[in-house]
Amino acid sequence: MKKTTHKIPFIAIIGKPNVGKSSLFNRIVGRKVAIISDISGTTRDRVFRKVQINNIQSILVDTGGLEFEKKENIEADMQTQAHIAIDQADLVIFMVDGRFQPTIDDFEIAKILRKKSKKIILVANKIDRNKKADDLANWHQLGFDYPIDISVTHNINLDKLENILSKNLINLGYKEENQEEEQKTKDIKLAIIGRPNAGKSSLINALTGENRLIVSDISGTTRDAIDIELEKNNQLFTLIDTAGLRRKGKIEKGIEKYSSFRTIDAIERSDIVCLMLDYSVGIRAQDLHISSYILDAHKGLIILINKYDLMENKEEERTRINRILKHRFDYLSWAPVLYISAKNHKNLELILETAVQIKNERNKELDQEVLRDWLTETIHKHHPPSAGRNRLHFYTLIQIPSATPTFEFLVSNKDSVHFSYQRYLENSFRENFGFIGTSIRFFYKNLDKKLIKKSQPL
Asked: Cα-Cα-Cα-Cα dihedral of 266, 87, 71, 42, to 10°?
């Protein structure tokens, strides 16, 4: 089995139309992300979501159905994206409809997959518990291991499928997260992310003082994620330049589609992401889409407003843009905003200084007693809402060693912690402890019932 260099594994779901790919995708993700329909070709673009496969963080990719009649326009584009998903995946789920016998299209897909140096998991969907094993024997003709029989609709054997996926991911070298402290490296990995032509390559050239990357007005010049080492003030940085991310529906045919995989992978292996916005064109929906990838990855974040030199009334324009950012990026209020000019080398040193500060914030450890005192005071200021007769109680708060600041609340009933109260806790937490420029992960865990009787709530 071919080993991979991805920071986080990609798992692609491949198959003909209407075999249940999107239903399986939604089931593993845990919510309806991909659109489900009996109409062939509903999934036109690849859909990405980060998931946990038995404690192994992965990127699950849903694809359009593969067909082998001549396709034109958008249908042809769907086929291209499915083929790219296969090439970029570390693990492929080949999904078939187990109610029927293999078709010509199934054999054609199998032929393509056998040529790839990938681990292929053959999955026969739409199988009920009364289906005889002999009925699936013909699927062995496709050249893979005996199919895993599942029913997404009736939730049959999905645990078995996830166990098999996790075993194969471990064989590829991926490890389960066990809440032990991740290895901290001396360098700061800084990914430069943004829409095409925002000035990402120009920024890296300016930071390094060399024309290391091609700069062009033509959108999409950068195709791959490129690592460049830089040392400033005795601090080593790894700058990761990436292709411009567009909304899924705007990704062009061909090689540019590979760029979205590599950009997401660059986000995953970075410590801090610089989200680069182009002042000359304003904030667009694509910028919000890109920010969602960064937020899901729980990374440090700096928002860069590039082409600052084009502002006529700088103070007035900064006030206006800050107001827009506060409204449109309200979920990223903790991220510092820097106004720069890659072209004129304005405020570039501030980027690296801020990155060092954020890395220190991400490594910050808080004393247990300090956390307990803060939680006690915060709860007394604003008690959590009650759920029916059962009042929600908090017992303690602990910090979990992790590359991302992670904290665990022990409570009487985690399902009673309302979203608005979670937001209240995070806002209060940041006011007291900072953690500027980095996301924070809060987990809520039920205290053991035997311990609840012996414990005094805060």
From this structure: -60
194 SS3 class: strand
Q: Round to whole Å and give the CA distance between 169 and 191.
A: 25
Quick check: do 10-171 and 188-362 share a fold? yes
Alpha helix segments (H runs only) across 172-283: 200-208, 256-268
**Token pair in block for residue 265:** 């992978």
* Rg of the chain, C-alpha, whole Å: 24
Picking from 197, 253, 247, the residue whose alpha carbon sits closest to that of residue 220 is 197
Tell me the per-residue pLDDT of 163-217, one tens digit each, with 9 for 90 and over.
999 999 999 988 876 544 444 457 899 999 888 778 888 898 888 886 554 343 4
For the cut 70, the answer to whether the pLDDT of residue 416 exceeds it is yes
pLDDT of residue 299: 94
Here the contacts of 73-77 (C-beta below 8 Å, separation 24 or greater) are: 74/44, 75/41, 77/44, 77/253
Token pair 């012996």 in the structure block, residue: 454
Which pLDDT belongs to residue 258?
Answer: 46
For β-strands 235-241 and 226-232, DSSP reports them as antiparallel
Identify the pLDDT of residue 39. 41
Residue with tokens 């182009």: 278
**From CA 24, how far away is CA 166, in angstroms rounded?**
16
* Prediction pTM value: 0.64
Residue pLDDT, tens place only, 270-281: 999 999 999 988
Bridge-based pairing of strands 272-278 and 300-306 is: parallel
The residue to which tokens 């070298």 are assigned: 173
Question: CA 135 from chain center: how many Å?
Answer: 39
From the list 263, 289, 251, the residue with the least C-alpha distance to 80 is 251
CATH for 368-454, options being 3.30.300.20, 3.40.50.720, 3.40.367.20, 3.40.50.620: 3.30.300.20
The pLDDT of residue 334 is 95
Distance, CA of 171 to CA of 158 (rounded, Å): 20
Neighbours of 219 (CB within 10 A): 15
- 425, 442 contact by CB (below 8 A): yes
Angle between helices 73-88 and 104-114 (to 10 degrees): 40
Cα distance between residue 5 and residue 90, in whole Å: 9
User: Residue 179: its pLDDT value, please?
Assistant: 41
Give CA–CA dist 355/347, Å, rounded: 13
Residue ranges of domains in the chain: 10-171, 188-362, 368-454
Taking every pair of C-alpha atoms in the chain, what is the biggest distance, in angstroms? 76
- On whether the CB atoms of residues 409 and 422 are closer than 8 A, the answer is no
